[in-house]
Amino acid sequence: MLQACLLALVAGYADTIGYIRYDAFAGLMTGNTIFLGSELATGRFAAAAFHLAIIGSFLTGVVISQALIKQDFAPFHALCMTSVMLAICGFLPHGVAALLLALAMGMQNSAANRFNGVALNTVFVTGNLQKLGEGLVAWAWSSGSERSKSIDSTAIYAYVWIAYAFGAAAGALAHGLMTYPLLLPAMILPFIMPLNSRR
Q1: Structural domains of the chain in order of their starting residue, each with its CATH number
Q2: H helices within 25-180, ranges in order?
């Protein structure tokens, strides 16, 4: 559970930096798709192309991460690559940094999304909130040992959402205080998942 929360913390932080500094979400493709649709509708085609490229970059990160896993690389390797990308984002031009940040978040989310048998996303949280709601209903309709088991398996979704929110707040603060705020999560990522871990 700690690993999932730390990854969500990093993702909330990176998404906030992406939105504030680069005018695009790093991991929240729902938001970028809304930007894309509204920009197409209002004839802002250059901005629409930018957000379409962000979405494509995130998807590419997922593909790269999955390819590494198929080649029997551990999630650790994808997270190390993500860490390097985060570290260099601040030194790149605006548009390139935005694309690289989305690529990194796609890799992170795809590399590590199972924790103690529970499948969840750490880079975006809408689906996790749905699972939290479903779990609360299951808990309310269960009894005895089933009720205890139900709340234990549901709690991780709440913890991950809270960690993401704290990460977003930390990202907003770091944006105002640091010249290169993405260096901070870059230093954390390689230590979240051990080298011998598997999905």
Answers
A1: 2-191 (1.20.1250)
A2: 29-41, 45-70, 75-89, 94-111, 126-140, 144-177
